[in-house]
Each structure stands twice: as structure tokens, then as C-alpha cells.
């Protein structure tokens, strides 16, 4: 009887061991099935994205009432299409079979919880919906990755550049831009352009002069598509703004006016831009300011053709001669 109990206990232990191995393998190969999402989340539930590194910093994107923004830049608008594209790319990750499932693989490929190149955390409020670790490069636009919920390491079609930690890589670049058709007047230091009957006219033109339509269109396009390098944050309203080195005003079709004031940055060659449309201070490159500064009135003046005085006189003389001949 004692021997039988020992045999039965051994059989039970073997069964338990076998069941454990089968369970482990089932879990392992379920994770390894190709075509399955690497991370699972509901895109419309994500309201916070945190991308961080071990030592180089992080960036946070937050969805508010007016859309995605950057808390580190005092709520400056983020590029909504870029953020949505980022979430779609994460949702659609369908890796092939794992490249490693053994203990310590996360450390070898730098996708561990304390050793990674990027950690992407998707949240709803304070709750994490999904976390993805990105590690070493696996080739052009490919990287090794691991979901926080598993140990398997995969090779995915995704680049570290897509998970930038630089706030200016996520900014809405259209904030300063206007639609050219919405602009009806431009006041620059050296000239004023005004649109009348869908034609641009230079103020103060003398007789025999008109407006060069092509040059006017070029100027409108340049000022409508103003670009910036970065955002410094919001201006401190308690501190008087510096005297601008360049300023101009756009009048829009709805009657609004937007003033642009450029002042030299304290360091470097860049300029700081303040507009009347919002409180943010923009960093603008020296080249952009120089291009606006070089817009000249003379380039807009187009001389109209007039009949020469001597030709008019000759015609009058011929008429006089003809009349005299008829009289005789």
C-alpha cells in the first residue's frame, strides 16, 4: 500500500509538471502567433501619451477639450493628424514570430522595464491602457519591441524617430498660418497692399504705375505660410515686450487684424515672435525674418504703357495737314 501511494504521488507530480509545461507553452505560442496585435487598446479611449527614455528625457501629449496639446509647452496645440497617425501605427503593429522568448532576452535587446530606448505608455486618465518597450534597431525603420504584458521580443516595422521625445516634433505647424484668400490687406513698414475686386493694389501709386500681380501673390503666399522653429511658452504679461525690430499687420476677411512683432533673441541668431492672436512666444529663424525684411515696395511697382508724347503730336499734325488739304 505504501509503495502504491508513492507511485500514485509520483504520477500526480508528473501530471502537474506536464500540465504546467503545456500551459507555459500554450501561453508562449499564443503570444507568438503572427498577425495578432502586439498591444491592444481602444484608440478613442487614449487621452494621454507618454514617451520616455532612460536618460534623455520624455514628452507627454494630452488630449483636452480642444484636442491634443503639449503640457511642457503650456498647452500648445499638437499636430492632431500626426498624433492620430501615431496611435494607428501602434494599433496596427502585427509582428511575425518572436525573435526571442528566453529569460533575459529583454535585456539583450534593450526592451526591459529598466533598460530601453523608448517606453510608450498609453493612458486613459491615470490608468495605463498599454505599454510598449522599444529597443535596439533591427534595420532601417525596424526595431525590437516588447509589450509590457509579455516576455517575447519581436521585430516590428517601426522607427525610433516615430516616437520622438522632442516637443517641437509634435507641434501643430499650422498655428501661425493663414489662408491666402482670407487676407484682404497687408501693412508692412515700407508699403501697404489691399485687395479690391479680387485684385491686389499697392497703396500710393502714381500715374502710369500699377501693381505687379505675380509679386503681390508671392508676398501674400510668403506671409500666409509663416513658419517657426519652436515655442518658448507663453509670454509673461507682467513684463513689457521688447521693442520689435520688424512688425507688420494682416487684415482678414472677417475684419480681424493680426499683428506680428519680431524681436532679437537674447542668445543666438534666432528671433522671438509675438502675435496679437495668442499669448505664445515663437522662435523663428533668422532666414525667415530676413526674407520678410527684404520685401520691398519697388518690386511691386509695375509701369503701365502710355502713348509717347511725340507720337501723339505727330498724329495731331497729320490731322491738321489733312484738314488743310481738304480746305484747299
Relevant terms:
328 residues; alpha+beta; Immunoglobulin-like; eight-stranded antiparallel β-sheet; DUF4340; DUF4340 domain-containing protein
Structure commentary:
This protein has 328 residues and is an alpha+beta fold. It folds into two domains: 35-169, Immunoglobulin-like, CATH 2.60.40.4250; 180-303, Sandwich (Immunoglobulin-like), CATH 2.60.40. It is 26% helix and 31% strand. The strands form four sheets. The protein has an eight-stranded antiparallel sheet with strand order 4-3-2-1-7-8-9-10, with no helix packed on it. Strand 1 and strand 2 form a beta hairpin. It is elongated, with a radius of gyration of 34 Å. The termini are far apart. Residues 16-30 and 311-328 have low confidence and may be disordered. Residues 68-237 form the DUF4340 domain. Residues 302-328 are annotated as: Disordered. It comes from Nitrococcus mobilis Nb-231. This is DUF4340 domain-containing protein.
What order do the helices and strands follow?
HEEEEHHEEEEEEEEEEHEEEEEHEH
Output the number of helix runs: 6
Distance between the termini: 160 Å
Radius of gyration: 34 Å
Shape: elongated
**How much helix, percentage-wise, in residues?**
25-40%
Instruction: Write down the overall mean pLDDT.
Output: 86
Largest sheet: number of strands, sense, barrel closure: 8 strands, antiparallel
Q: How many structural domains does the protein architecture include?
A: 2
Based on secondary structure, the structural category is alpha+beta
Strand order of the largest sheet: 4-3-2-1-7-8-9-10
CATH topology of the largest domain: Immunoglobulin-like
From the 3D coordinates, which CATH architecture of the largest domain would you assign? Sandwich
Unreliable residue runs: 16-30, 311-328
What is the name of the CATH class of the largest domain? Mainly Beta
Strand proportion, as a percent range, falls in 25-35%
Q: What is the number of strand segments?
A: 20
Amino acid at each position: 500500500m505504501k509503495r502504491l501511494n508513492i507511485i500514485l504521488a509520483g504520477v500526480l507530480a508528473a501530471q502537474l509538471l506536464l500540465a504546467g509545461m503545456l500551459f507555459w507553452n500554450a501561453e508562449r505560442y499564443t503570444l507568438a502567433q503572427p498577425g495578432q496585435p502586439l498591444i491592444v487598446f481602444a484608440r478613442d479611449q487614449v487621452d494621454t501619451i507618454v514617451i520616455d527614455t532612460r536618460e534623455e528625457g520624455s514628452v507627454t501629449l494630452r488630449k483636452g477639450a480642444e484636442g491634443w496639446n503639449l503640457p511642457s509647452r503650456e498647452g500648445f496645440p499638437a499636430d492632431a493628424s500626426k498624433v492620430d497617425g501615431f496611435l494607428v501605427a501602434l494599433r496596427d503593429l502585427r509582428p511575425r514570430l518572436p525573435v526571442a522568448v528566453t529569460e533575459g532576452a529583454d535585456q539583450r535587446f534593450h526592451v526591459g522595464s529598466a533598460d530601453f530606448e523608448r517606453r510608450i505608455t498609453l493612458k486613459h486618465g491615470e490608468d495605463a491602457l498599454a505599454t510598449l518597450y522599444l529597443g535596439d534597431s533591427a534595420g532601417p525603420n525596424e526595431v525590437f519591441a516588447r509589450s509590457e504584458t509579455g516576455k517575447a521580443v519581436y521585430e516590428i516595422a517601426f522607427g525610433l524617430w516615430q516616437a520622438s521625445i522632442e516637443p517641437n516634433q509634435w507641434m501643430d505647424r499650422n498655428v501661425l498660418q493663414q489662408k491666402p484668400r482670407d487676407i484682404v490687406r497687408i501693412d508692412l513698414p515700407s508699403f501697404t497692399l489691399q485687395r479690391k475686386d479680387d485684385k491686389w493694389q499697392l497703396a500710393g501709386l502714381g500715374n502710369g504705375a500699377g501693381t505687379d500681380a505675380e509679386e503681390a501673390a508671392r508676398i501674400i503666399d510668403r506671409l500666409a505660410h509663416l513658419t517657426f522653429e519652436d515655442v518658448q511658452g507663453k509670454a509673461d504679461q507682467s513684463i513689457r515686450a521688447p521693442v520689435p525690430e520688424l512688425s507688420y499687420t494682416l487684415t482678414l476677411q472677417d475684419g480681424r487684424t493680426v499683428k506680428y512683432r519680431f524681436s532679437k533673441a537674447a542668445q543666438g541668431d534666432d528671433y522671438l515672435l509675438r502675435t496679437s492672436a495668442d499669448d505664445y512666444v515663437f522662435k523663428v529663424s533668422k532666414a525667415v525674418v530676413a526674407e520678410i525684411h527684404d520685401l520691398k515696395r519697388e518690386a511691386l511697382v509695375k509701369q503701365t504703357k502710355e502713348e509717347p508724347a511725340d507720337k501723339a503730336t505727330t498724329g495731331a499734325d497729320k490731322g491738321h495737314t489733312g484738314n488743310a488739304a481738304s480746305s484747299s
